[in-house]
Automatic annotation (TrEMBL):
Keywords: 4Fe-4S, Iron, Iron-sulfur, Metal-binding, Molybdenum, Nitrate assimilation, Oxidoreductase. This is Molybdopterin oxidoreductase. InterPro entries: Asp_de-COase-like_dom_sf (IPR009010), CT_Nitrate-R-NapA-like (IPR041957), MoPterin_dinucl-bd_dom (IPR006657), Mopterin_OxRdtase (IPR006656), Mopterin_OxRdtase_4Fe-4S_dom (IPR006963), Prok_molybdopt-oxidoreductase (IPR050123). Residues 1-20 are annotated as: Disordered. Residues 41-97 form the 4Fe-4S Mo/W bis-MGD-type domain. It comes from Amycolatopsis bullii. It holds the Pfam family Molybdopterin. The keyword Transferase does not apply.
């Protein structure tokens, strides 16, 4: 067994392999100081919870506490590898500032209370508002980090118990566009491809996807292909010089907000040069003529002028993509959180469809997730979707869900689409939404235009419930705080970005009076005395496994079919991809291998929207356009961003992630190695822009927009001219800063309130910004502290 530095060598030792070969096993392990493998009392099955990759792992338990982690060699996702957040993030479970008792607000202060008092306040306020205004006064905002059983329960309570349409997840900030793009192209959510396609692809194209830092283990898989024989070519589309860009065959550093123009330019060349699989397109798709007519107006010269790249690079990219025999495309936040998000992501689907690259090894598209259970939030219906990928505009789908829940069909709101988060906030701002229950997320740092968000959360008209494991910037506005158990302290399933389902077992007890989210939701339902049509308590389940069995019944016959899964099966096999049924008991590696799609008018999850305006398509229109349920090629014209650089704000500002932190650092900021690796916010500036502003590495600079200003140390290089970058992870919980006041650290002090018209995903990557020097460097830039990790390569 060898050792590596798990911080400065995050992708570990190379294990090269060639196309079609099995990815070699490498088992990564990190244990608490002084604990050896032989000292571990037991290893408990789980998977990673601090990114979306779904790395299978075992939790080490020593003396009733989590003492480390070990990658699962037999897991289909990671073959034993773990990323830095996997290796060190578990330490947050034992942080001394865990919430261990409920809190309620008295005389303006949060004070300790009993569960009965806290839940009594929540229930009494719920009933008051139901009597005064009805269910439209109540809203729920959840996470991408809970378990499927918890999302399904929350969806049942909100939709079937209360009858509110106001339920969304923070997947709205993260991968709402992934879901929207898949619905627009294929009629339904669900990733067509699989991580195993990396093993076969001869071209891998990453569109706005810094895989090296967001999915480090999957990037290790790509690096191992690059180190082996016959490596794939790599295309990177990103304004920053990321590790992906540095490894790429071709890097397109297009301007923020121009992704549709870039994709149209690439598709122009695909069509112009005849790199279209016309047999596949004619047999499996509709919409080719409209798409070809649209992209005809985007020759490389026009696209290059809009995007700020060389026309020759666009031609080179198209040639690379057009000549691929096995093309794998991935998409993430560089497209999802930017201008024309859904339209741009759909153009990547168009590329794959035009090339006939679906359903075969090495070919496909992954509209990626950013969170470990974002897929569950969507499929269970705990966001702007209906449970089981059902279509809210299809009365038969709503009636089927009502039968499953044994409630009246009129109880489930379907008079319009489920309310997305940004609209919920507007309702709270105007006073029509009076109750908001936030679980496992931190909107006071993660949402755009934070000054506005704080004013909404702090409103005396809003009753705010926050369910979390720690006090956060958001809990400081709460009327009731509920202490929640987290990963390793409860049992449940979660599904990653390539549809792989894992079981995570309870390893240790939660601290103090903290409870699993499932228990909290069910306690609320029982106190509210929800009943089904048979008079029995609703929801009808009572623990994690019965909730999973209920979810299986809800998913049966739908694209996300779990009916062939069980806790017993998931204890034997480390990761199984849905759909898993009696016909496919081992799961399904790729969707659409037979050229059939989930797009039939009576079956599809969505009838789609106009990609530019967001206007919904009527069922009759959809049926006429796509009567046979084929995949849909959808065109979109480029329109300029709503906020563009000007004389006073000459830069584009984008925000994003670092490999060492997850979201608002609620957990990773409490892991010593991760905190030391990236302790403070920084500002990335190109060398030319830094010189023009008189800035050197480590100087303190201020970046400002019409919403506010952030001060940060400068990192020079690594980004195209005219663009600035801030990581969004840094808020105020760990600095001396008055809660609820305007700050100068959080990137979202600067972003603006705008969202994609199709996915309703907020835009974080097209703000116009100014830059100025505040002070010269006072100290050298700190380097990450090495942290040893055991590595065992199995040849």
């Amino acid at each position: 067994m060898g050792k590596r530095d798990g911080i400065t060598e995050p992708w570990g030792t190379r294990t090269p392999y060639g196309p079609g070969q099995a990815w070699p096993v490498r088992v990564d392990t990190h244990l608490a100081d002084g604990v050896r493998p032989d000292d571990v009392d037991r290893w408990v099955r789980s998977a990673a919870v601090l990114h979306s990759n779904g790395d299978g792992l075992d939790i080490a338990v020593k003396d009733g506490r989590i003492a480390g982690v070990r990658g699962r060699a037999d897991d289909r996702v990671n073959h034993g590898r773990l990323d830095p957040k996997d290796l060190f993030g578990w330490q947050a479970n034992s942080a001394p500032d865990r919430l261990t008792t409920p809190l309620v607000r008295r005389d303006g202060e949060l004070v300790e209370a009993s569960w009965d008092e806290a839940m009594g306040l929540v229930v009494s306020r719920t009933k008051e508002l139901l009597d005064e205004q009805g269910p439209g006064a109540l809203g729920f905002y959840t996470s991408g980090q809970l378990f499927a059983e918890e999302y399904y329960t929350l969806a049942a309570i909100a939709r079937g118990g209360l009858g509110t349409n106001h339920l969304d997840g923070n997947t709205r900030l993260c991968t709402a566009t992934a879901a929207a793009a898949l619905k627009e192209s294929f009629g339904c959510d669900g990733q067509p491809a699989s991580y195993t396609d990396v093993d076969h692809a001869d071209v891998i194209a990453l569109f706005g996807h810094n895989m090296a830092e967001t999915q480090a283990v999957l990037w290790s898989r790509v690096l191992d292909r690059l180190a082996g024989p016959n490596p794939p070519a790599v295309l990177c589309v990103d304004p920053r010089d990321t590790p992906v860009a540095r490894a790429a065959t071709l890097h397109l550093a297009s301007l923020p907000g121009t992704n549709v123009a870039l994709m149209n330019g690439i598709l122009h060349e695909i069509v112009e040069h005849g790199w279209v699989d016309r047999e596949y397109v004619d047999r499996c798709t509709v919409g080719y003529d409209d798409l070809a007519a649209m992209v005809a107006d985007y020759p490389p010269e026009r696209a290059a002028q809009i995007c700020g790249v060389d026309a020759g690079q666009i031609r080179e990219a198209a040639r690379l993509l057009g000549s691929a025999e096995r093309l794998l495309c991935t998409v993430l936040q560089g497209f999802y959180q930017s201008h024309q998000a859904s339209a741009a992501a759909v153009q990547v689907n168009n590329l794959v469809l035009l090339r006939g690259m679906l359903g075969k090894p090495g070919a496909g598209v992954l509209q990626m997730n950013g969170q470990p259970t974002a897929e569950n939030t969507r499929e269970c219906g705990a966001d702007g979707d209906l449970t089981g990928f059902r279509n809210w505009a299809n009365d038969a789908h709503v009636a089927e869900l009502a039968r499953l829940w044994n409630v009246d069909v009129g109880k489930i709101p379907h008079y319009g689409p489920p309310t997305h988060l940004m609209q919920m906030l507007r309702y709270a701002e105007t006073g029509t939404l009076r109750f908001l229950w936030v679980s496992a997320t931190n909107p006071a740092v993660s949402l755009p235009e934070l000054h506005r968000i704080r004013s909404i959360l702090d409103s005396s008209r809003l009753f705010l419930v926050v369910q979390d494991a720690f006090r956060t910037e958001t809990t400081e506005f709460a009327d009731v705080v509920l202490p929640a158990a987290i990963w390793g302290e409860k049992t449940g399933t979660f599904t990653n970005a390539d549809r792989t389902v894992h079981l995570s077992e309870k390893a240790v007890d939660p601290p103090g009076q903290a409870r699993p989210d499932l228990d909290i939701f069910l306690d609320y339902a029982r106190r509210m005395d929800f009943r089904g049509n048979d008079g029995e308590p609703f929801p009808q389940w009572h623990d994690a496994e019965t909730a999973f069995e209920a979810w299986k019944r809800a998913s049966a016959g739908r694209p996300c079919d779990y009916s062939g899964l069980s806790y017993a099966k998931l204890r034997e096999v480390s990761g199984i991809q849905w759909p898993c049924t009696s016909d496919s008991p081992d799961g399904t590696e790729r969707l659409y291998a037979d050229g059939k799609f989930f797009a039939q008018p009576d079956y599809c999850e969505s009838y789609g929207r106009d990609l530019v305006t967001g206007a919904p398509m009527e069922p009759t229109e959809y049926r006429a356009m796509n009567p046979d349920g084929k995949a849909m090629l959808k065109a979109a014209e480029y329109v300029p961003p709503h906020e563009k650089p000007d004389e006073d704000h000459p830069f584009f500002l984008v925000n994003g992630r670092t490999i060492y932190h997850f979201h608002t650092r609620t957990k990773t900021g409490r892991a010593p190695e991760l905190r030391a690796a990236a302790p403070e916010v920084w500002l990335e500036v190109s060398a030319r822009d830094a010189e023009a502003a008189g800035l050197a590495e480590g100087d303190l600079a201020e970046v400002s927009t019409p919403r506010g200003a952030v001060r940060a140390r400068v990192r020079v290089g690594g980004i195209r001219d005219g663009v600035l970058f801030l990581p969004f992870h840094y808020g105020y919980w760990d600095v001396e800063h008055p809660a609820g006041k305007d700050g100068d650290r959080a990137a979202n002090e600067l972003t603006f309130t705008d969202w994609d018209p199709v996915s309703k995903q907020p835009l974080f990557k097209t703000a116009a910004a100014a830059l100025r020097k505040v002070a010269a460097v006072a100290a050298p830039r700190s380097e990450p502290v090495p942290a040893a990790v055991d590595e065992e390569v199995v040849r």
